[in-house]
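Good morning,

Attaching, inline, the backbone tokens for the sequence recovery test we're adding to the shared suite. The designed sequence is right after.
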């Protein structure tokens, strides 16, 4: 198709996939953004009567420099009794988005922001999610605040509260935070000029809590290593393969977000508030956290769960296997519809008014999210593999190490004595069916149709 001119690097089979996603396509996105914004008053705060005053403590939004939808920030707070609270501020989209409104319908139709190697497709209008409601540094930002106290010896949550508030935000990137967390001597961090000594102390204290929480989750059976999965980005005509490393800065953010998710899940369960939970089945085989390679391989062949499932809280064991606790996503409402639903339910409960979404509504919403999420995952997988193979076009003739975990022998003798095998090439996190020469098992050839 390339040789015939039907496909190019800019117009590929991805366009055929995107055609099936309707509202995610750029022209439709532009039109719907304008229409939906006309129905809301951005100067109105739906929670002005219960919103707390600006927090005195600075909150840190830790992200990549290129992030445009900034929806979470973390901080610490000491109350009047000397208790230390972990504070997690989340961009408050439900301060302008009403349940069952036109804007909510837009979010529901898209379910989440789609990230592809060559393009991003926003769930919400960009001037909302990337500007007006995104956490900003030039003025106090509207937030839904989750505040937790944890047992410093065990790591369990001992107190929780939430409220609409206003927060002072400071943006810092992962590299700067990593430099701070990896230095035992604070005086060596003077190079991080944008973060002063007192701020560095707060980040180190938060990281201590993150380590306590990680140990707590591990004791509860959590899987705390990451399956190998590189990020594939195409920028300015170049394809880059970027591996996520187990960095302390990422651990800090991950543990804080999981903490908020557990706290909300526990609270909603206790108060019988219907929200979308995330659960994951227990594996068929038990693998410890120091056996990540084995875990990844078993996951590939289906013996361990890899994908998560959104569903109602109706199971005997609602715990999320990989997280190690009950869990609900609540920290990314600018790019996930399920988080918006949970925020709306929590606010109604806080006000003591009827919940906007009934059990019946939630079941319908969750089924829709499940269905759309699977389609989006398929699109993302297709897109990543497409650009990965474009990257591999430049490496034809090179040899890479792989693990053969399944051999498909021909039913009859082949003229060339070739058979298929399923192989895992860790360098690219690539699971693929390849041709295997039984005479020389060390020589594997990528199918030509896959890379040309």
């Amino acid at each position: 198709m390339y040789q015939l001119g039907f496909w190019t690097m800019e117009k590929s089979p991805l366009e055929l996939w995107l055609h099936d996603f309707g509202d995610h396509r750029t022209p439709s996105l532009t039109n719907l953004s304008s229409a939906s914004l006309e129905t809301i008053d951005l100067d109105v705060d739906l929670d002005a009567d219960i919103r707390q005053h600006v927090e005195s403590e600075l909150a840190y939004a830790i992200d990549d420099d290129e992030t445009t939808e900034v929806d979470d920030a973390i901080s610490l707070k000491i109350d009047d009794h000397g208790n230390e609270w972990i504070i997690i501020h989340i961009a408050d989209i439900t301060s302008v988005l009403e349940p069952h409104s036109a804007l909510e319908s837009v979010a529901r139709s898209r379910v989440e922001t789609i990230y592809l190697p060559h393009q991003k497709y926003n769930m919400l209008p960009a001037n909302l999610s990337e500007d007006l409601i995104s956490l900003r540094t030039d003025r106090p930002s509207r937030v839904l605040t989750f505040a937790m106290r944890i047992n410093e010896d065990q790591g369990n949550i001992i107190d929780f509260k939430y409220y609409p508030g206003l927060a002072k935000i400071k943006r810092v990137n992962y590299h700067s935070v990593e430099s701070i967390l990896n230095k035992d001597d604070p005086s060596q961090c003077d190079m991080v000029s944008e973060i002063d000594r007192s701020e560095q102390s707060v980040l180190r204290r938060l990281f201590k809590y993150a380590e306590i929480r990680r140990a707590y989750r591990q004791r509860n059976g959590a899987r705390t290593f990451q399956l190998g999965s590189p990020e594939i980005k195409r920028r300015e005509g170049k394809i880059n393969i970027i591996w996520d490393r187990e960095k302390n800065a990422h651990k800090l953010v991950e543990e804080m977000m999981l903490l908020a998710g557990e706290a909300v899940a526990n609270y909603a369960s206790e108060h019988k508030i219907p929200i979308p939970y995330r659960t994951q089945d227990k594996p068929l085989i038990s693998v410890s956290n120091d056996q990540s390679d084995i875990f990844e391989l078993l996951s590939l062949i289906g013996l361990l769960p890899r994908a998560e499932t959104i569903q109602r809280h109706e199971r005997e064991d609602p715990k999320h296997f990989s997280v190690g606790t009950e869990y609900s996503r609540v920290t990314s409402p600018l790019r996930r519809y399920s988080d918006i639903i949970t925020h709306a339910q929590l606010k109604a409960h806080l006000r003591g008014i009827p919940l906007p979404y009934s059990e019946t509504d939630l079941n319908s919403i969750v089924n829709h999210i499940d269905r759309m999420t699977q389609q989006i995952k398929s699109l993302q997988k297709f897109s990543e593999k497409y650009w990965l193979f474009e990257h591999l076009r430049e490496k034809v003739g090179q040899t890479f190490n792989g693990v053969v975990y399944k051999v498909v022998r021909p039913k009859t003798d082949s003229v060339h004595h070739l058979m298929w095998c399923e192989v895992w090439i860790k360098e690219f996190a690539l699971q693929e069916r390849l041709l295997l020469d039984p005479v020389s098992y060390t020589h594997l050839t990528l199918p030509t149709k896959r890379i040309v």
